[in-house]
Input
Amino acid sequence: MIPRVLTAKLRDLSKRYPVLAVLGPRQSGKTTLVKFAFPSLRYVSLEDPDIREYATRDPRSFLRDISEGAILDEAQRVPILFSYLQSWVEEHQGMGRYVLTGSQNFLMMEGISQSLAGRVAVLKLLPFSLAELAGTEHWQASVEEFMFRGLFPAIYDRHIEPADWYRSYIETYLERDVRQLRAVGDLDSFQRFLRMCASRTSQLVNLSSLASDCGVSHNTAKAWLSVLEASFLVYLSKPFHRNYGKRLVKTPKLYFTDPGLVCALQGITRPEQLETHFLRGALFETLVVSEILKYQTNRGRGPDCSFWRDQHGREVDCLLEEGGRTTAIEIKAGRTPNAEYFTGLGQWRRIAGPDAGETAVVYAGDSSQNRSAGRLVSWSAIESLFEFPSR
Output
């Protein structure tokens, strides 16, 4: 098993909360992680029809059977259980006794907020980060290979061909998860919507265009996008909240949380195609933003990456705010350093003034450098973005 960074945070919080919840997309490694982190806890899958029926029909007896604690996999499948679990953990004191996993944010958070607020620590697990693969046999891959293969654990742990794995993943997602959400009635149209969203990764969300291209209403497109977000397949980056006297774009940007899924949805069959593919820049930006999100979620923080763009088209791809510090990041898919990479950051510094903070460019090359215009960071060293020296 390739160790997961989230393990340390998960074990730490188990000393402070009676219930832990690990959310994330299907096949991101949630079950493997919690079994590894808590080997003494009994594992119970609520995907099993018999167990699910037992937990639904007689939740008190079900909880009595697991009174010593348990891992409850896909807990959103039995929403009634959350209310009973609340009274159970109040009556039977103890920290870290129950670990819930789930792949549908809407259903999990509804149950948690209504019944377990204040009693549960919520963590998110996305697919492997590049840092987690560093030092393994897989680390010699090129950036094109990582974009093409994506970072879902099964592709690396079981050495499955990406085309085979993503084909099954997409079909399983549509059949198992989407059918459970009332917002989706026409699976064929939804699959077309999914592919259209993939072609727009790293772009501003245009619901009218998406709706028109898929032959659905604006409200349907909005609801379906929420389904993708709730399933942790996409992330909506919000516009930066300060406008510095300029009229700003208010529309979020759409990112898939795994570039390999985008490649599969767009029919890309070989990593070599990404050398010249029209989606190369968008896929590289998707890879970098997903790595930033993983750094944050792997340490128990909420994913937080905004962008800045004004009415003149000036923009910064990613802005991170942490501890009163703002880090502005531009993302470039080229391999050769270019002074023009820093143009947008220079504009940002002039407009933001003393709030501009640190600046960096992440690019597809192999070497990192400190330049007068800002830091130049290799794609393979993205975590160094969080290692700026103290001011």
Notes: The first strand starts at residue 19 and ends at 23. The chain has a mean pLDDT of 90. The domain at 6-124 is CATH 3.40.50.300 (Rossmann fold).
